[in-house]
Amino acid sequence: MVIYKRTSEEDELIQILELQRQNLPVSLSMEEKHREGFVTVSHSLDLLKEMHKVCPHIIAKDKDTVIGYALCMHPRFAGTVPVLKPMFREIKKVVPEEQKYMVMGQICVHKAYRKKGIFRKLYQTMKTALFPDYPTIITEVDTKNQRSLKAHYAVGFKDLKTYRSTNQEWQLISIE
Rounded distance, CA 115 to CA 34, Å? Predict the structure, then answer.
């Protein structure tokens, strides 16, 4: 039985990193990236711990195994991941300064658990956990990652803007 919760121990963060590693572009064939999607950012354990202290991440577990996650990245971490700095600059251009939001720093579901509603339930759990402190969740998706974009749109994300950074095209999206 899959349970959804917030991270509460270091082992869960370590398991997030392993699932992340398995889904980075360097770990996947071109066909897998197209068919299954991919994650872009590789986090460190120290950064995940710091992010967790501010806002624990959302995970799906089957027994003791993390099989999915949605990372909570407070805007105060805007300068910590080089590839995400442009995203935070673009957010400032389209989101009013007084609007409170949380960035969903990355979402991933283990291959064996895909197409079972886990992606949707991770977002529902995140929305419930963050509301009312953070009524808006913002993220970006590489436009080449069509599987991820379709999944985000299916749970209610809307386009904020499209922009280019580091030879990539990004879709900045949000949900309330």
Answer: 16
The per-residue DSSP string of the chain comes to -EEEEE--SHHHHHHHHHHHHHTSGGGS-HHHHHHH--------HHHHHHHHHHSPPEEEEETTEEEEEEEEE-GGGTTTSGGGHHHHHHHHHHS-TT--EEEEEEEEE-GGGTTSSHHHHHHHHHHHHHTTT--EEEEEEETT-HHHHHHHHHTT-EEEEEEEETTEEEEEEEE-
- The pLDDT tens digits of the residues spanning 1-22 come to 999 999 999 999 999 999 999 9
Q: Positive or negative, the Cα torsion across 20, 54, 140, 83?
A: negative
pLDDT of res. 32: 84
Nearest to 138 by CA among 98, 80, 82, 90: 90
Contact 73, 51 (CB under 8 A): yes
Q: Radius of gyration (Cα) for the chain, nearest Å?
A: 15
Q: Are strands 136-142 and 101-109 parallel, antiparallel or unpaired?
A: parallel
pLDDT at 25 over 80: no
